[in-house]
Design goal:
Blueprint: H1 2-11, E1 17-18, H2 26-42, E2 48-49, H3 60-70, E3 78-82, H4 93-103, E4 111-116, H5 122-128, E5 131-135, E6 139-144, E7 147-153, H6 157-167, H7 171-177
Parallel strand pairs: 1-2, 3-4, 4-5
Antiparallel strand pairs: 5-6, 6-7
């Protein structure tokens, strides 16, 4: 498919609609679509895109958005980064990251958010983000625009991140992310990783 699109682009000036048909299920199809269309879009080939998955239709739209956002072709919504669940992680980064990403899914304002859980990448990625969490054993540092805002206990990670994100959004979106009175649920109570090194910036 990639080679066919390239050959067509060399022979015609017609707009090209990109898509990898019969790509597969949610995971495999997302990977194939991202690689195939990413190669073409990075070369300036393609005018519109679609993602076709053996999944619910609403799963296809976020994948398409992320392809465009990753190539910096769509400057809208949250650019979200989080660390892998490796042996250095000292918080339940999977739970916190998934919950933060879910709660920010309707945000359209461009904003960079990081949820990190170790000494190696946590502070740097969090400083580079508009809002970042660098988590360690039982507590974490909240960054906003590269500055340390506060240190919070683990059961307040979600609340603290969303509150800072909301402070950078227009009022309408801020209310979706962090309603008046705060959020009703917190994440991070049940850590799956307890190993690892302490985060120096968290030490009192």
């Amino acid at each position: 498919a990639v080679e066919a699109y390239r050959r067509f682009a060399q022979r015609s000036d017609y707009p090209l609609h990109l898509g990898i048909t019969e790509a597969g299920t949610l995971v495999t199809g997302s990977v194939k679509s991202s690689v195939g269309m990413g190669l073409l879009l990075a070369d300036g080939i393609g005018d519109t895109i679609r993602v076709s998955l053996s999944a619910e239709p609403e799963e296809e739209i976020p994948v398409a958005y992320e392809i465009l956002r990753s190539l910096e072709l769509r400057n809208r919504g949250v650019t979200f980064v989080s660390c892998p669940s490796c042996g250095r992680v000292e918080i339940d980064v999977i739970q916190v990251a998934n919950e933060v990403e879910k709660r920010l899914s309707k945000v359209q304002t461009p904003i960079h958010v990081a949820v990190m859980g170790c000494v190696v990448n946590g502070p740097g990625e969090s400083r580079d983000a508009d809002v970042g969490l660098a988590g360690g054993k039982g507590r974490g540092v909240i960054f906003r625009k590269g500055e340390v805002i506060k240190t919070v206990p683990e059961d307040q990670f979600l609340d603290a991140v969303l509150k800072e994100v909301a402070s950078l959004l227009p009022e309408r979106e801020a209310k979706l992310v962090y309603p008046e009175g705060g959020i009703q649920e917190t994440a991070g109570h049940h850590r799956t990783r307890v190993e690892g090194m302490g985060l120096p910036i968290l030490k009192s």
